[in-house]
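Ticket #4471: structure output looks truncated?

Reporter: J.K.
Steps to reproduce: submitted the chain below (427 residues) through the standard prediction queue, then opened the result file.
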Amino acid sequence: MIRPALYNNFFFLLTFFIGFNSLYSQKKFTVVLDAGHGGSDVGANRTYSDIGTVQEKVVTLSVVLKLGRMLEKNKDYKVIYTRKIDEYPSLTYRTDLANRSKADLFISVHVNSSPSRSATAQGTETFVQGPNQNKANLDVAKAENDVIFLDEKDKENFASYNPSSPESLIALKIQQSKYLEASLTIGGMIEDNFVKKDKRLSRGVKQANLHVLRMNAMPSILIETGFVNNYDDAKYISTEEGQQAIAESIFNAIVNYKKLVDRNVREPEPEKPVEKPLKNDFRILLMSTPSKYTEDDPALKGLKYILPIKENGTYKYYYGTTNYASIRDNNLKTAKDSGFRNAMAISFVPNQKLGIGYYTLEVYAGKDKLDSKSVIMKTLPDIVRNKENGVFYYTYGKFKSMEEVINLQKELEGKGIINTVIEKKLK
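Returned output as attached by the reporter:
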């Protein structure tokens, strides 16, 4: 399980919370509970011969109502629901409601589904709005973000968002710097409870670009309570007992999270200086191997935001990128907790030009030659083909900096050319 080691670092948010000291003394702790999907949007679903049809919209509403009733019994909490019946509130409505309410916490409850019919994926996972904006990041959130097109206002508010634009990225980072650590903290508490109290498998706390979280002005999380196409998960989340247990685990985490917030507000420690960015970028080296893996390969242990770099026939797999020490350390812990015990942080000089050699992009490797009518061949007319040990390798371009080839990688992903690998050639 991935557990963010953030409890001792929570004072990072001290400045933000102290500014609201008087507010906390006057108002209840406001929690917005969002039951994912609803109405015509069923969400993830699966039919079984013995347990019947399991629908995401039904499970999420049941969990949220149970959780809300527990919170409402405590006079210190104010609960706001994005929906209490089988209806579909737009993503814009959900975030606007939370922001207008000046909520202290936003919790969106969902049910997961793996693309494979084998149903090997199992367990819970909690997402926070993360800083990485590559295609892998966006693909993680695609199932939840597809609902955006059900509402015209959502199209207007979200469709123009360009994850590659500097303006969007700057705005996103400002928002994340305020709420990321708090979101990771409450997410870690919830996943801990799922494991320790409910004895369930946790896939950890992860970062993704989720529209329902991106525009929230408060700590926000999206909880995937289990996989609908995994029989054991589906059976658990479809029962009253399972839904009650899930609600209790989330409730206990909220209570402990509020205690942590109150302690920091009422008994503040000396304010820590704002973290300054480091001179270099840092990526986490997971492993070096002659094998080439795609982003969903079990060898990557469910981690996303993977950047493979090939050098001298060896593929090196890097996780995440940041120029902040705290995020670097958290990424390293995430990698180690996922099973990469020998993972290490590697420094990269931004926009560094290679003195010798160049970077190129390996766009295909396989035993068969590419057809001239393939997307790759039609898109990249100047592609280079080599054959080694019975394998055809197709590479494209020569670049002096890694940033240049990463930009090409993103451009090609938009054209449907995926699973490319940056290759460093020294001669």
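Triage note (M.O.): checked the attachment and the full token line is present. DSSP finds 14 helices and 16 strands in the chain.
Status: closed, working as intended.
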